[in-house]
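Quick one, probably user error.
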């Protein structure tokens, strides 16, 4: 009777592990999978090399089968349970520093050959987590749904809870709706205090994306209180993350600043780069509200360091978008566009559903100063499917773009399809952005009552800068800029001049020259100051702000560009007559009156009727 020598048994153990690992595998990973001490592993590798079964590259530390068909045959001959174990062990061995897609492949391999429903469901959750890291969101969602179905059928409360917190909300209604529903079911099923914190935190995030602000505030507060009581740093990270998402408006800056500091400390003390990254991104959010571009620039290096240590596409996305937003705020438009394109490549490669919305929002900000692309002026790019949450934003933002392009008729129609501003949903993080864009459009289309309403909302935000919170950025300058626009539209030139002067000074102070040009242009329009227009024109040309260059040139040109009929219509506009009343007064059609008004706006470079009235009172009336 012959006995197998230990070294031969070890060689066989390594051989089958290498077969399941794939066409190539690093030796350090293979040793962890085989679970052999270094000397025994080295001896086994030596046997396999001498026999011609394996080839090893000393420079890379990789190994592979000399004959790939032998590897595939070896893997196929393994019993299913053994193959499942080896896939699981390989995925675990790769977790620290392996390729995300390769890790996901091994979890999928383990799922495929596991027959027990509960074991299979647990493996599906590991697959979902790995798939998110690899950017395969469809597989992640499908795997989690399958695990939830098993948990419901088996009434396995712990499994259901684990499934409910496996995925993070991403702004897609069916994905986020599933998470919210799973959390609701898991909370009703009971569980430990720690489990409850995790479920409340995840449900908060889903509620924010589903526009359920009050639910998010309550759930996040409950999660944070319970996490503090438990004293578990990992639970505290989850609770703080949820609270940040629920409280990212201008009123929340003090709380957000404290949360950012705590998150950074938790990340550094536990060595979790992804946690530190979140804290630093939150700190940047607070700095955007303050308009502290220099501090944001200083923070970008630290963000890049965290993202590099954390790995994965999400961190890279945050680095690129932070740098792109900063470049746009500083009127470094070419750099901003290049960084945006690189960031979008990252997000589109992983199929993230937020990529389209992020691109449209960013190009809106760039186009406001550089000129909007034909795509942004069209309707196709504003289609966000059936998700009602994007309906208002799409209509309002497109109206803003059309106002910039001077297409006021289309902008007016879109604005009135948004409904009354008081009926708009409460968007805590986007409060300043929503009210600012609403005010700019309302001012342009002559919706005076709405302009007053927006001004009332924005008045208490003096000293802040207009951004979308919770990482959205979309910087639109100081609040005083939009307040100046409101005052001009309401026929209050002295107030407008004071606010626009403040806005221009603040923009120059923080290093946002594009918004300084915008403020100066609006100030010159309000005051009919050709010398100021000429000063601003030089900077606008240097920055490549094409639409503002054209607008400032018209302001700086002394000749009256209006025809006699247009001057007559301009006086009637200044008297407060509507298009219908102008038509009746001049015995022309309402459409003709409307065309005259549009031509006047175009020739004078104005955005609304109030500017025409101001121009008449200080310029035309002296003819």
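Nope, works fine. Designed sequence:
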């Amino acid at each position: 009777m012959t006995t197998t020598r230990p070294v031969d048994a070890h060689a066989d153990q390594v051989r089958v592990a290498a077969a399941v690992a794939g066409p190539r595998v690093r030796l350090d990973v293979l040793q962890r999978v085989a679970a052999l001490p270094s000397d025994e592993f080295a001896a086994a590798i030596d046997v396999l090399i001498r026999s011609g079964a394996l080839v090893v590259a000393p420079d890379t530390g990789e190994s592979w089968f000399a004959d790939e068909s032998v590897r595939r045959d070896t893997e196929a001959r393994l019993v299913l349970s053994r193959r499942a174990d080896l896939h699981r062990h390989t995925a675990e061995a790769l977790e620290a520093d392996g390729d995300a897609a390769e890790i996901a492949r091994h979890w999928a391999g383990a799922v495929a050959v596991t027959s027990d429903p509960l074991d299979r469901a647990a493996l599906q959750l590991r697959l979902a987590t790995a798939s998110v890291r690899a950017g395969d969101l469809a597989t992640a969602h499908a795997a989690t749904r399958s695990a939830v179905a098993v948990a419901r059928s088996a009434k396995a409360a712990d499994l259901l809870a684990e499934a409910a917190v496996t995925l993070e909300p991403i702004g897609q209604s069916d994905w986020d709706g599933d998470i919210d529903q799973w959390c609701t079911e898991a909370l009703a099923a009971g569980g430990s205090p720690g489990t409850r914190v995790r479920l409340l935190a995840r449900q908060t995030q889903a509620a924010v994306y589903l526009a359920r602000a009050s639910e998010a505030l309550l759930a996040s507060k409950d999660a944070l209180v319970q996490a503090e009581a438990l004293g578990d740093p990992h639970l505290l990270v989850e609770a703080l993350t949820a609270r940040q998402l629920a409280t990212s408006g201008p009123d929340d800056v003090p709380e957000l600043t404290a949360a950012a500091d705590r998150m950074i400390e938790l990340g550094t003390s536990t060595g979790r780069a992804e946690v530190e990254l979140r804290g630093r991104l939150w700190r940047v959010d607070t700095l955007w509200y303050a308009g502290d571009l220099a501090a944001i620039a200083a923070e970008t290096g630290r963000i890049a360091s965290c993202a590099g240590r954390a790995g994965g596409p999400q961190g890279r996305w945050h680095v690129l978008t932070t740098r792109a937003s900063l470049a746009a705020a500083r009127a470094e438009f070419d750099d901003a566009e290049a960084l945006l394109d690189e960031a979008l490549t990252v997000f589109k490669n992983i199929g993230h559903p937020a990529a389209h919305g992020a691109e449209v929002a960013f190009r809106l900000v760039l186009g406001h100063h550089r000129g909007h692309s034909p795509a942004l002026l069209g309707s196709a790019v504003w289609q966000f499917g059936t998700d009602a949450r994007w309906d208002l934003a799409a209509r309002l933002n497109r109206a803003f773009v059309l106002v910039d392009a001077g297409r006021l008729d289309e902008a007016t129609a879109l604005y009135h399809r948004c409904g009354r501003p008081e009926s708009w949903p409460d968007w805590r993080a986007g409060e300043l952005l929503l009210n600012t864009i609403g005010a700019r459009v309302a001012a342009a289309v002559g919706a005076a009552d709405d302009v007053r309403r927006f001004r009332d909302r924005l008045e208490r935000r003096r000293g802040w800068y207009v951004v979308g919170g919770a990482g959205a950025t979309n910087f639109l300058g100081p609040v005083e800029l939009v307040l100046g626009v409101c005052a001009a539209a309401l026929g209050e030139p002295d107030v407008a001049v004071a606010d626009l002067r403040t806005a221009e000074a603040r923009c120059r102070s923080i290093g946002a020259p594009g918004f300084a040009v915008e403020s100066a242009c609006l100030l010159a329009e309000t005051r009919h100051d050709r010398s100021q227009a000429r000063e601003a024109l030089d900077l606008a040309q240097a920055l490549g702000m094409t639409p503002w260059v054209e607008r400032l040139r018209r302001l700086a040109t002394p000749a009256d560009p209006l025809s006699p009929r247009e001057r007559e219509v301009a006086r009637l506009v200044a008297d407060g007559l509507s298009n219908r009343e102008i038509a009746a007064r001049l015995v022309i059609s309402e459409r003709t009156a409307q065309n005259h008004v549009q031509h006047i706006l175009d020739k004078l470079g104005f955005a609304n009727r109030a500017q025409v009235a101001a121009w008449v009172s200080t310029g035309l009336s002296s003819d």
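The chain has a mean pLDDT of 91.
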